[in-house]
Amino acid sequence: MATRIIQPAARTPSRQRAPTWRQALDERIEDQWELVREAGADRREHLSSNATYVLADAVQFLAELPPNSIHAVVTDPPYGVIEYEQKDHQKLRSGRGGVWRIPPSFDGAKRSPLPRFTVLSEEELTRLHSFFSAIAYGIHRALVPGGHAFIAANPLLSTMTFHAFQSAGLEKRGEVIRLLTTLRGGDRPKGAEKEFSDVSMMARSGWEPWGIFRKPMIGTAATNLKAWGTGGLRRISADEPFRDVIPCSPTRGREREIAPHPSLKPQRFMRQLVRAALPLGVGIIYDPFAGSGSTLAAADAIGYRAIGTDRDVEYFGIATRAFPALSKLAIVQ
Ligand SMILES: C[S@@+](CC[C@H](N)C(=O)[O-])C[C@H]1O[C@@H](n2cnc3c(N)ncnc32)[C@H](O)[C@@H]1O
């Protein structure tokens, strides 16, 4: 693969006059940004002139956002919901039990805990669907017509998560498949590993699905692009459309030191998704489950505006400290 550094958003050269519709769009986005970054009364940190992180519950914050004010959502939610709820989250922090487990070590290397999504009960699955329905309805209301939402999931739970988004009125527009080596699945039967040494209980997983959704456009693609700056995806270049399979290994090394969140997503991947989410390179990105602020850092690196929420005060602190280094991190594709 050719070596390429992701470039910031193209800006209209100052002496070349933008068409009238584009001037009106830029002005509207400017006004929307002032409203969005001050929405609600929760504690917040303006991380840069382009990025704001609010310590807030996502469902509540979505209700406080003005309707038709966000141009794209890029988010990595709690896939099973329970892993970031008080009981199991406390267990992760104390290093014992719950939905989190340490993957088996076969090479002496210390592994980070991963949530086990096979253990969810019927009741927890029903709660998961209700939670994502509330998020999806909120996103539908906050997005401008034609706005895209990229929602990360896990292959075991994505059917339920994505169904909630479609039921809320968002159109499914495909999935991005992130190819990566994981330590999920592939285990022999517990307690009978030697007896059934040729058996794996599940396939070793090598991909992560990100649902692509869109709020229905108003009018044609061209009308919607001019009115709202949304409806399509930004191309990689004039010759290359955005593609839905992206190989990208798990976050390691320096990035983890900068932003020690248990579910940190790599900048190399996030910058590609975030960039594609705004077809004209202008607008506001929202990440309801911002964690370490990796989406906000990716947006800032590209030159986009972004707002994020997370209800966990520890992750709010991590993001505030990590943001300058994460957004400036040099990455090579
Ligand atoms: C999978 S992590 C996101 C990690 C992020 N992608 C990163 O790279 O750091 C999900 C996050 O959602 C947060 N969360 C869970 N429920 C929430 C809610 N109702 N409102 C806001 N944040 C929530 C958790 O605290 C957690 O940080």
Précis, in short:
This protein has 333 residues and is α/β, with parallel strands linked by helices. 34% of the residues lie in helices and 18% in strands. 40% of the residues are buried.
Topology, please?
Elements lengths: L19 H17 L7 E5 L2 E5 L2 H7 L5 E6 L10 H9 L5 E2 L12 E2 L6 H21 E10 L5 H10 L3 E9 L27 E8 L6 H8 L16 E3 L5 H6 L8 H11 L6 E4 L6 H9 L2 E6 L2 H16 L5
Parallel strand pairs: 2-11, 3-6, 3-10, 7-9, 10-11
Antiparallel strand pairs: 1-2, 4-5, 6-8, 7-8
Helix pairs in contact: 2-4, 4-5, 8-9, 9-10
The structure holds S-adenosylmethionine.
Strand arrangement across the biggest beta sheet: 1-2-11-10-3-6-8-7-9
Uncertain runs: 1-9
Major sheet characteristics? 9 strands, mixed
CATH class: Alpha Beta
Q: Looking at CATH, which topology would you report?
A: Rossmann fold
The average pLDDT value, as a whole number, equals 90
Distance, first to last CA: 8 Å
How much of the residues is beta strand, in percent?
15-25%
What number of domains?
1
Report the structural category: alpha/beta
Got a strand count? 11
Radius of gyration: 20 Å
Task: Please tell me the CATH architecture by its name.
Answer: 3-Layer(aba) Sandwich
Per the principal axes of the C-alpha atoms, what is the gross shape?
A: globular
Measured as a percent range, the helix fraction is 25-40%
The protein's oligomeric status is: single chain
- CATH-level-4 superfamily name: Vaccinia Virus protein VP39
Distinct ligand kinds = S-adenosylmethionine
Tally of helical segments: 10
Order of helices and strands: HEEHEHEEHEHEEHEHHEHEH
